[in-house]
Each structure stands twice: as C-alpha cells, then as structure tokens.
Design brief:
Elements lengths: L8 H10 L48 H27 L7 H21 L11 H27 L2 H8 L2 H11 L7 H19 L6 H25 L4 H5 L2 H24 L3 H10 L1 H26 L3 H23 L5 H27 L1
Helix pairs in contact: 2-12, 2-13, 3-4, 3-10, 3-12, 4-5, 4-8, 4-10, 5-8, 5-13, 6-8, 7-14, 10-12, 11-12, 13-14
Length: 373
C-alpha cells in the first residue's frame, strides 16, 4: 500500500523497522512512499521544519502527509468536543452548579489517573518515568494550577452555557499577558497589548445576548483562565530545569504525573466543599446511569484530548498551533451549542468571532510585524 509493495524485501523490512514507535512517540510518519529502486521519495531529515508536516508533496493522495499528525488533530478535536458534551450532561444530571461540580471535576481527574497507571503497567504501552522526590516537588505548582484550571472550568460550565464558558475561556491570552509582564517579568510586545481590547470586546459583546448568562459562570471562567496562565508559565519553568525532562521520558508521562498530583490535591478540596453531600452523590451514582456513564466518559475524554493536544502542539510550529486552537474552539462552541440546544444569537456569534479572531491575531501578530520589518 502507498507504493510500499514495489520496494525490495530487505529495504522494506528495514523501513518498517525504522518507523516502529519507541516509548509511545512517533518520530516520523508511519508510511513513506518508496520508488521502484527501493529509495524513499520523501526526505527523512528528522530536523525538517514542523510546518512541512502539513505539506502534500505529490505522488499519491497521502504522499508527504504526516498521517499520524492528522490523526492527532482529529482525535484532539473530537475528544474536546465530546468532553464538553458528556461533562455538561453529567453536571446537569447531578444538579448543575448547586449539585456536585467539585466532586465531578475531581473524579474526572481520578478516571484519568486510572488510565495513566494502566499505561505504565500494561506490557509495551509506556515506559515509566524515573523521577525523584525533588522532581515531584518541582511539579507541585504545575499540578496545583492544573487542578485550579480544571475545577474552575467545570464550575463555569455547570453554572452557564458551554458555548458562553468557552467564549470567556478564549480570553486566556489577556491573563497570560498580564502575568508574563508583571509577575514573570517577560515583556509583552506593544502589538500584542493592542490585541487585548479586541479579545475583551468580543467577550463583552457575546455576553450581552447570552440567554444563560450567570456572573458565577463568568467569574469561574476567568479564574480558570488565571490558573491556566499560571500553569503555562510554571510548566515552562519546569521544563527548563536540568534533567527533569529526561527523567520524565515523554510528554505523556509529564501529563500523567501532573494529573496524579492534581487528583491527590483535589481530594481535600472535595471533602471541604462537598464532603457532607457525598452520600447523596453516591445514591445518584447508583440510581442515575446518566451521571455515572457521562462522568467516566468525560474523564477519559478529558485525559485523552489533553494528552493528544500536547503531542500535537509539540509536532507543529507556533502559527499552526494558533490556527489549530482557534479552529478547535470554534468547532466546540458551535457544535456543542447545536447538540445541547444552547442559544446562538447573531450578536453572540459576532462577539464570539471577534473574540476568537483577536486571540488568533494575538498569537501571530509578532510574526507578522517581524516580517514587515
């Protein structure tokens, strides 16, 4: 298939051997077009630009296309889409914002932890990390921020429409810019600052016609953005620490360890906020399959799409990342709103378009200005 049957037997065997994933990572496309002389028609230079991964170089319909990367994108989008639907269904069945949002967010992390542990014990699935106690301590800030971002997001989506929560969450660059400039002392360009009013304006415009508007949803989504911005900066500091990246071994291991730590941290918070109602939740779990099914499904979707997103963004350039994130959010906002019957007022859609467009512009503006100069 894809021209491989024309290759001499020995070269084909060597080619297949070279593309076997190691440690859960795929370093190059699984299938490469081969000519009649047995030589690859596509450059195997591992240092090629990540932007080339999306370039079709001729030959067959898939020649030169990084098929695994395309699958990463597809399952990342699908996972995020289905997470938002199953998460909302579980929250609604459990009573919304007055029900068990902290319990659900914590158990979603727990489902991911079970999956992560399974991947470490399953034969030939994923090599376990070799981190030490000092590494774990250094990862605690990242895990705490991950917990805060997830729990606040779940509460925001329990208090209001998913589409509205996603629109507000799209304004994360505003929080990231402020933190980078004033907390982490990393200067933000004037061009990026100029994009922030566009993002804020879009969110405000989308809020005007939101039928399911709630200040609690707005505040919770903003808190989620704040934690997400802290997480991004803390994660960058962690990856710059000598040896940590090597001892973790892979992106999947990094996300797994952070998820485990975040779940452990969530337990005391769950006990304090909803511990007294735990008996009620257990009864709902046992009697209402909508809660149990969608909670487990949303936990798996959440873990899966986040890990795939990390792997996808690692294989692409900055501009591709920005476009991909923008497209994902548009798909989730519109798709989930249609499935759940949420309002799609023209003013809300206009505000959504302005806000997300501002996010995309914020992501690429420095590159555009540099090219002009």
């Amino acid at each position: 298939a894809f021209g491989m049957t024309f290759a001499p037997k020995t070269k084909l065997a060597n080619g297949v051997k070279n593309f076997i994933p190691r440690g859960g990572h795929i370093s190059s496309p699984l299938v490469q077009p081969v000519g009649v002389d047995g030589k690859s028609l596509v450059s195997m230079n591992s240092e090629a630009s990540s932007s080339d991964a999306l370039t079709v170089k001729g030959g067959g319909p898939l020649s030169g296309v990084d098929v695994p990367l395309m699958m990463y994108f597809a399952f990342w989008y699908l996972g995020n889409y289905f997470y938002n639907i199953t998460n909302k269904l579980a929250l609604k069945a459990a009573g919304g914002s007055s029900g068990f949002p902290m319990t659900i967010s914590s158990l979603q992390l727990g489902v991911g932890v079970i999956y992560a542990l399974f991947m470490w014990v399953a034969p030939d699935a994923r090599k376990r990390p070799t981190i030490n106690v000092d590494d774990v301590i250094k990862m605690l800030p990242v895990a705490f921020c991950a917990l805060g971002a997830h729990s606040a997001s779940v509460f925001a989506l329990s208090a209001g429409a998913v589409s509205f929560g996603q629109i507000v969450k799209a304004s994360e660059p505003v929080f990231a810019a402020v933190l980078s400039q004033f907390v982490y002392k990393k200067k933000i360009s004037t061009a990026k600052w100029a994009c922030l009013p566009i993002i804020i304006g879009g969110v405000v415009l989308a809020s005007v016609k939101e039928l399911d508007f709630a200040f609690s949803a707005l505040i919770a989504a903003c808190i989620a953005n704040l934690f997400a911005a802290f997480k991004g900066n803390e994660n960058k500091k962690l990856m710059e620490t000598d040896g940590v990246k090597d001892r973790l071994g892979s992106v999947g291991n990094q996300f797994a360890v952070v998820s485990i730590l975040a779940f452990i941290m969530s337990i005391p918070l769950l006990i304090v906020t909803e511990g007294k109602k735990w008996g009620q939740f257990v009864e709902l779990w046992n009697t209402n399959p909508v809660i149990s099914f969608n909670l487990i499904a949303s936990g798996l979707y959440f873990y899966g799409y986040n890990e795939l997103a990390t792997m996808t963004l690692k294989k692409t350039g900055a501009v591709t990342q920005s476009v991909a994130n923008t497209a994902k959010r548009v798909i989730v906002i519109v798709g989930v709103a249609i499935v759940l019957g949420e309002s799609l007022d023209p003013i809300k859609l206009l505000g959504c378009g302005i806000g997300i467009g501002g996010v995309l512009l914020y992501s690429v503006i420095d590159s555009l200005v540099a090219k002009k100069e």
